Amino acid sequence: MSNNINVLGIELSNSRLSLGVGNLGGTLDYVERMPASPNLDQDEFERLFSASAVALREWVDARGIDLRQAAMSIPGYGREAGNPIFPWDMARLEGFLGKVLPGLPLALTNSVVAQAAFNRYAMPSTYAVEGDHLFLFVGHGVAGVIVNEAEPIDAFSPFEMGHMVIERDGLVCRCGHRGCVEAYTSLRAVSTIIGVPGNEILARGDRFLDALEVDNVAREMLRERQFLLGLALGNALNLHPVPAVVISGWPSLTPESDRSAIFDGLNQSLLGGYDEGRLSLSFIAPSIGNDPKAALSYAAYCFVSGGGLEAASDARAMEETA
Ligand SMILES: [Zn+2]
């Protein structure tokens, strides 16, 4: 039954705008991905989306599919003072999407919240952590969200660990500052180190490191970047202590001997040092290049948690008795 219910996911990630349709079971039956600047402005977004919405509508209509929920995930979304990464007018965005997708309930969320929803509700589940923890996503952006088990996932507030400055006058970041964690540890930084273009990494997905002859210099650099990630993570945990951290990102794909650098970094910044008895750190595969699956998962989550499934089965029962 839930396989007949379709949702729409829209994602701004990996320097592209992706939209896709799938069912509540996590399929991706229709997808379109368009290159988009990491600093995409709102006019350009509207132009790109309007063009792709025509093809989407044709695909949906040809199959008699009734879309029930849409969700869009945006890096940096949800800050009261506005989004410094995509400084768009949110009322205008909602108005625009409401016009292009009339009658379709829409949820906007931060990219890391959508990633957390994707990982927690993935079937089969690979998410072994229970209890309150930090979910840290290390992709084109680097962001975390404190997962409080007593709260629904849409109530979580993300924090932009990627823009913690760890090197004064360091590498340039897309936010305009220098020396941010993201400039050192995002997939874009990795792409530069290993000499593989970003779109090729996305096409290879979670196996992008397997096929490579990563030389010792690059490997040492990746270790150093993981050390910096650990350093930043320890600082974040000093501000907001939690007993467990789950990392989803390229470090999850590196050999254990390399990602031990994260523990070394943690050890140098976390108050009291790193102690596995006090902090459990685990890694899950990031599903690189699968956008907009995270936004789709979030749309499915919103549909189900909003009571959509019950309403749909009530309607089905009424049809059957009629
Ligand atoms: Zn930054």
TrEMBL record:
InterPro entries: ATPase_NBD, ROK. It comes from Neoaquamicrobium sediminum. It comes from the Bacteria. This is ROK family protein. Belongs to the ROK (NagC/XylR) family. It holds the Pfam family ROK.
